[in-house]
Amino acid sequence: MINITIPTPDVSITKQIAPKESNIYGFTDFHLISRELGGIFMFYNNKEELLFVGKARKLRPRIKKHFEDTVSVIKKHREEVTRIDICVVEDPVHREIYETYIINEFKAKYNEDKVFFR
After folding, report:
1. What is the DSSP string of 20-50?
2. Among 115, 12, 5, which residue's Cα sits nearest to residue 63?
3. What is the block-wise mean pLDDT of the chain (118 residues), using blocks of 10 residues?
4. Cα–Cα distance between 61 and 49 in angstroms, integer?
5. Which residues, at least 6 apart from 115, have a Cβ–Cβ distance to it below 8 Å?
6. What is the pTM of this model?
7. Phi and psi (nearest 5°) for 21?
8. Left if phi > 0, otherwise alpha if psi is -120 to 50, otherwise beta: which for 94?
9. Alpha-carbon distance 109 to 32, whole Å?
10. Which residues share a beta bridge with 43?
11. What number of other Cβ atoms are within 10 A of residue 93's Cβ?
12. How far is it, in rounded angstroms, from Cα 45 to Cα 85?
């Protein structure tokens, strides 16, 4: 049996209600997410349900792309995201393992790839 310990989030940003600052779908704290480091990210809704898990070589641009891109898996569910947890994981192999494990262990709602629980 393999035992995987999910890293504790390094950054967690929360959707603001009627933010006064510039925002993307209510998120104003993208500046807290590293622009240069790689890792994994998890989108949650207000019921604490895991919606989507992803990985990136550069976290901030990749996460923002999910809120701007027309081909993102969550494009129809962006309003549902209320929290984003980010774990810095520089090793690409570790990112792949964590992403696949979290998707399946916590049954991420909108992940389509790497899903073994359906």
Report:
1. SS--BTTB--GGGS-SS--EEEEEE-TT--E
2. 12
3. 92 92 91 96 97 97 94 92 98 97 95 82
4. 24
5. 103, 104, 108
6. 0.93
7. -80, 170
8. alpha
9. 26
10. 52, 84
11. 8
12. 11
